[in-house]
Automatic annotation (TrEMBL):
Superkingdom to which the source organism belongs: Bacteria
Assembly mode: Homodimer.
PANTHER family attached to this UniProt entry: HISTIDINOL-PHOSPHATE AMINOTRANSFERASE, HISTIDINOL-PHOSPHATE AMINOTRANSFERASE-RELATED
Signal peptide: none
Family, per entry: Belongs to the class-II pyridoxal-phosphate-dependent aminotransferase family. Histidinol-phosphate aminotransferase subfamily.
Domain Aminotransferase class I/classII large positions: 48-343
Catalytic activity: L-histidinol phosphate + 2-oxoglutarate = 3-(imidazol-4-yl)-2-oxopropyl phosphate + L-glutamate
Gene Ontology terms describing biological process: L-histidine biosynthetic process
GO MF terms held by the record: histidinol-phosphate transaminase activity; pyridoxal phosphate binding
Species this protein is from: Mucilaginibacter glaciei
Name assigned to this protein: Histidinol-phosphate aminotransferase
Length: 348
């Protein structure tokens, strides 16, 4: 049975987190002489001489309004990669515990596991790019703490079967992490609405994709209050800078514009798929719920190099397990997609 106390590392359970100046006083004042900041300001038009809110309270309140989740159930990090690393450091003992990943998938799960000296047990997706529940069940042992699921999946683009994910949530005594970086482009519902049903669920999202804020590095994790408390305890005191917080808040007031971009991206994706299917070297295009498509070709490396020569950069995924011969193409603007297609039509 799931119990967070059985999963937490002993040192994390006993950890006293760093107490910053902004943790100890959070109100308004006319003179701040507590944090050894430069009182004269910044050599910029905007002053960044004060430390940011360590808990990103205003950002969480706005996210709470958009996502329908209480602010206390939200973690805001320096990209989703920080959330991944914090989950490893909170729940997994280096050299002892293991996690499960399901390739082909986002490569940072494996990298972060390696950094934290953890065994990442690979259970390949099926030929249809769905979860292998039997294989996952066989890979789980008493030292398995986390299972990472990317849906919509990167690099395949498809959403994973919801019933399969719920089967894992109901039967695994560790934590299930669902990475929903591309959920805004998907027909599937987010798993955020299931947080009240599953105490062992963590849902990750980001402002890097549909929201167009990749350069700000703002990621989110949604989970039970007890998991969020642990993540806040382990994170660095000022993990999201003031500029990112201010700009994220500004962006979060433009939901309608973002929704328009999402619709245009999906329209462009459909057009791109139709035209790519007509090219003789394209053998398959996999269904996508993301802002990219995975395209199987007869000569992935040759096509990739040809496009590079013409100043067009895509991702060669042909060496990734179950993605042999495949290229991953992000959906661009109408003009960018037009350039891509006209260039590919010249490839022999």
């Amino acid at each position: 049975m799931y119990d967070i106390n059985n999963l937490l590392r002993k040192n994390i359970k006993n950890l006293t987190p760093y107490s910053s100046a902004r943790d100890e006083y959070t109100g308004e004042a006319s003179v701040f002489l507590d944090a050894n900041e430069n009182a004269f300001g910044s050599p910029l038009d905007t002053a960044y001489n004060r430390y940011p809110d360590p808990m990103q309270y205003k950002v969480k309140i706005r996210l709470s309004e958009i996502k329908g989740v209480p602010a206390r159930n939200i973690f805001v990090g320096n990209g989703s990669d920080e959330a991944i690393d914090i989950l490893f450091r909170s729940f997994c003992n280096p050299g002892v515990d293991n996690v499960i990943i399901c390739p082909p998938t986002y490569g940072m799960y494996q990298v972060s596991a390696n950094i934290n000296d953890l065994e990442a047990r690979k259970v390949l997706l099926t030929e249809e790019y769905q979860l292998n529940l039997e294989g996952i069940a066989e890979a789980i042992d008493e030292r398995t703490k986390l299972i990472f699921i990317c849906s919509p999946n990167n690099p395949t683009g498809n959403s994973l079967n919801r019933d399969d994910i719920e089967t894992l949530l109901a039967n695994f005594n560790g934590i299930i992490v669902i990475d929903e970086a591309y959920i805004n482009f998907s027909r599937q519902k987010t798993f955020i609405q299931e947080l009240t049903e599953y105490a062992n669920l963590v849902v990750m999202q980001t402002l890097s994709k549909a929201w167009g804020l990749a350069g700000l590095r703002v990621g989110m994790a949604f989970a039970s209050e007890e998991i969020i408390e642990v993540m806040n305890k382990v994170k660095p005191p000022y993990n999201v800078n003031e500029a990112s917080q201010q700009l994220a808040l500004e962006a979060l007031n433009n939901v309608q514009q973002v929704n328009g971009w999402i619709k245009e991206t999906l329209d462009e994706r459909d057009k791109l798929v139709l035209t790519l299917k007509e090219l003789p070297f394209v053998t398959d295009i996999y269904p996508s719920d993301a802002n990219f498509i995975l395209v199987k070709t007869t000569d992935a490396k040759g096509i990739y190099n040809f496009l590079v020569q013409h100043g067009i950069i895509i991702r060669d995924r042909s060496k990734v397990e179950l993605c042999e011969g495949c290229l991953r193409i992000t959906i661009g603007t109408p003009q960018e997609n037009k350039i891509l297609l006209s260039t590919l039509q010249q490839y022999k």
